[in-house]
Specification:
Layout (H helix, E strand, L loop, with lengths): L7 E6 L4 H11 L5 E7 L4 H11 L3 E4 L2 H13 L5 E4 H10 L5 E4 L7 H9 L3 E4 L2 H18 L2 E4 L2 H9 L14 E8 L17 H5 L8 H9 L1 H13 L7 E5 L5 E7 L4 E5 L5 H9 L13 H4 L13 H12 L3 H17 L7 H12 L8 H26 L2
Parallel strand pairs: 1-2, 1-5, 2-3, 3-4, 5-6, 6-7, 8-9
Antiparallel strand pairs: 8-10, 10-11
Helix pairs in contact: 2-3, 4-5, 5-6, 6-10, 6-14, 9-14, 10-13, 13-14, 13-15, 14-15, 14-16, 15-16
The protein binds NADPH dihydro-nicotinamide-adenine-dinucleotide phosphate (NDP) and magnesium ion.
Magnesium ion binds next to helix 7.
């Protein structure tokens, strides 16, 4: 522990978001154990101010320098000595802060990559919600975890569930060596699982963000509706659990009661069940290898009743097939997939692209951009940038075709 108070210092990157606020809720229940070291947000200075007042971090970070200066003044007036920084340097300082032992990586999208990597390189316990960082950099990310002695714990509910159902495994061992046949990743199917296909082109951002079982940020909510979220999660699972997509089976499970499963060679399947509440995986990662209360309602197994399972429909969810295509292509293909998805989802949220054109933009970008075997993060970011340019052009072309 970096400070002498005996408490574990925790930095929350993306503190004002859905995962960030859930993390602060869990931390507030265990003030005898954890101290908040740094909190970051992008633009929501009002919420960050409230979080600073409650948790009194050493450091706070906002995107723009002007916003940071204004927050610094407000915090001083409120009698807090929190330092406020801004921009990428601020995020990196928060990720590396010596008084932080653990870092919750909960920024959304590619913006989270460099701060999350900074936390890895500082050898922290990195609690990974920001799946896009791992999808983009894959092997580079995992090699850095190993090289820097960081501890990587999955926050994504499926991966946290798999982590809990996995047997211990030595560094070089494969899944087969420990008797694991495959990972079963569950997916709710999102809000449009049963919507007639002919109605999907007209769905609105509000409908897409109304997830039946989870309350989440807008980007991941749209990803859940297209099932690109599950595609990103298959990629995430391959890296986290050192396996191939053939050993990761996606199963639709509309109730979101089972968060994922591990199937063993003897025919056993171990499953993780809980109420759909992110505080469960967050508390798990904070307390690991111990356990502590999360604040989530315990699952009433009798009241929850049925557990249904279905095969995912790739015609309804073409984004899932695109993710498999990117994994098979390898190299920077998954970074290109992620970048095109971020551009398409943002355009959909801004009502510049219909829902059904999201996979079209991603597919056209995968067709147009050349993938590379990246020798470092800069090479990944170069292909990410190119994919964004191409995807934005595809969105503009779509809009001009759709114009009356
Ligand atoms: P939200 O949109 O709710 O929150 C995102 C956070 O990131 C906010 O604090 C936001 O700040 C900050 N942020 C946004 N853009 C930037 C940027 N350019 N630079 C720095 N900070 C930025 O997202 P979620 O909490 O839903 O998701 C966070 C991550 O966790 C995602 O990668 C998602 O896939 C993953 N995840 C989320 C789950 C969930 O239940 N929500 C479940 C599993 C995984 P501000 O508020 O100021 O905009
Ligand atoms: Mg998930």
């Amino acid at each position: 522990m970096a400070e002498n108070d005996g408490l574990i210092g925790v930095t929350v990157l993306g503190a004002t978001g859905s995962v960030g606020m859930n993390t602060l809720d869990v931390l507030a229940r265990h003030r005898d154990r954890y101290r908040v070291a740094a909190l970051t947000a992008h633009t929501d200075s009002e919420r960050l101010f409230a979080c600073c007042r409650e948790h009194r971090p050493e450091l706070a970070v906002l995107g723009r320098a002007g916003d940071a200066a204004a927050l610094q003044d407000r915090l001083r007036e409120a009698g807090l000595d929190t330092q406020v920084l801004s921009g990428p340097e601020g995020l990196e300082a928060a990720a590396r802060l010596p008084s932080a032992d653990y870092v919750m990586a909960a920024i959304v999208g590619a913006a989270g990559l460099l701060p999350t990597l900074a936390a890895v390189r500082a050898g922290k316990r990195v609690m990974l919600a920001n799946k896009e960082a791992l999808v983009m950099t894959g092997r580079i990310f995992m090699d850095e975890v190993e090289r820097c002695g960081a501890e990587l714990l999955p926050i994504d509910s499926e991966h946290n569930a798999v982590f809990q159902c996995m047997p211990p495994r030595a560094a070089g061992a494969d899944l087969e060596d420990v008797g694991v046949e495959r990972i079963l990743l569950t997916a709710s199917g999102g809000p449009f699982r049963t919507t007639p296909l002919s109605e999907l082109h007209a769905v609105t951002p509000e409908q897409a963000c109304a997830h039946p079982n989870w309350v989440m940020g807008r980007k991941i909510s749209v990803d859940s509706a297209t099932m690109m979220n599950k595609g990103l999660e298959v990629i995430e699972a391959c890296w986290l659990f050192r396996t191939t997509p053939e050993r990761v089976r996606v199963v639709l499970h509309p109730q979101s009661t089972i968060h994922s499963m591990v199937e063993y060679v003897d025919g056993s399947i171990l499953a993780h069940l809980a109420t759909p509440d992110m505080r469960v995986p967050i508390a798990h990662a904070l307390a690991w290898p111990g356990r502590m209360r999360s604040g989530a309602e315990p699952l009433d197994i009798v009241a929850s009743g049925r557990l249904d399972f279905e095969e995912p429909d790739l015609e309804r969810f073409p984004c899932l097939a695109l993710a498999y295509r990117a994994i098979a292509a390898g190299g920077t293909a998954t970074a290109v997939l992620n970048a095109a998805n971020e551009v398409a989802v943002q355009s959909f949220l801004e009502r510049r692209l219909p829902f059904t054109a999201i996979p079209q933009v991603i597919e056209a970008t995968l067709d147009a951009v050349e993938f590379h075997a990246p020798d470092g993060v800069d090479a990944v970011l170069a292909d990410d940038a190119q994919a964004r340019t191409v995807a934005a052009r595809m969105v503009a072309r779509h809009a001009s075709r759709a114009a009356p």
